[in-house]
Design brief:
By secondary structure, this protein is mainly α. 59% of the residues lie in helices and 2% in strands.
Length: 224
């Protein structure tokens, strides 16, 4: 081959190698950026925009917890807050129902009728056999496990852009489908109300527990 042909071949090879190197350099970066964008949690501003701040005029956060960590941390905080609020609302209603004398028919456990359960909250808990307490804790653990499992398999995880606090266990929340067909605005108002009611319930349960364990610690609180 002539020197001219060699030079042409070398230039062609150089162009091809340059093209391949450029493509290999940029393609993974684009894929990584796209994956990072898809896996990102909701911005903290979006999470903290609910509920509204009618009561205080601003976000009440004296410890500055909303400034801690990343967007994923804030999403985890909100998801935990919603779940704790739901547990507290159920606990408050249960404590009230027992104190009001409401009872289910039949037996709670072998040899223990519902009618024989004490009316005070902590005494009612103490009256439940150990295996009964274990079953409730196991049930709560199964709900938690499947909630995380279904978040990963049936939707977008709350730390990857999904909605914090959304229940993913089928039939556990809204079994009657009352929220079906509601607008996005109506669902947003419902979420805000749930967060506020959950916060109030957490304060209420803490107050009843304090009154039950430290008599006179909560002003105007009747014996519970």
């Amino acid at each position: 081959p002539t020197p001219t042909n060699n030079n042409a071949n070398m230039k062609t090879a150089a162009i091809i190698l340059s093209t391949l190197s450029v493509a290999s350099a940029f393609a993974p970066a684009q894929n990584a950026a796209s994956k990072s964008a898809l896996d990102a949690a909701l911005p903290r501003e979006t999470v903290l925009s609910e509920p509204d701040t009618t009561e205080f005029g601003k976000i009440w956060d004296p410890l500055g917890l909303a400034e801690m960590g990343s967007d994923e941390t804030i999403a985890w905080f909100r998801h935990s807050e919603v779940k704790h609020g739901r547990v507290a609302m159920a606990a408050f209603v249960g404590w009230w129902a027992v104190g009001a004398g409401l009872r289910l028919p039949g037996e709670l456990a072998y040899g223990l009728n519902f009618a024989d359960v004490p009316s005070k909250g902590l005494e009612a808990w103490d009256a439940i056999p150990g295996w009964g307490k274990a079953q409730m804790l196991l049930f709560a653990g199964l709900i938690e496990f499947h909630d995380e499992l279904f978040y990963s398999r049936r939707g977008t995880h709350y730390m990857r852009g999904g909605t914090p606090g959304k229940n993913m266990v089928p039939g556990l929340y809204d079994p009657l489908g009352l929220s079906t067909g509601k607008s996005a605005e109506a669902k947003a108002r419902g979420r805000s109300s749930e967060i506020k009611n959950g916060r109030l319930a957490m304060i209420g349960v803490a107050g009843m527990w304090a009154a039950a364990t430290l008599p006179g610690s909560v002003p105007l609180q009747p014996d519970c």
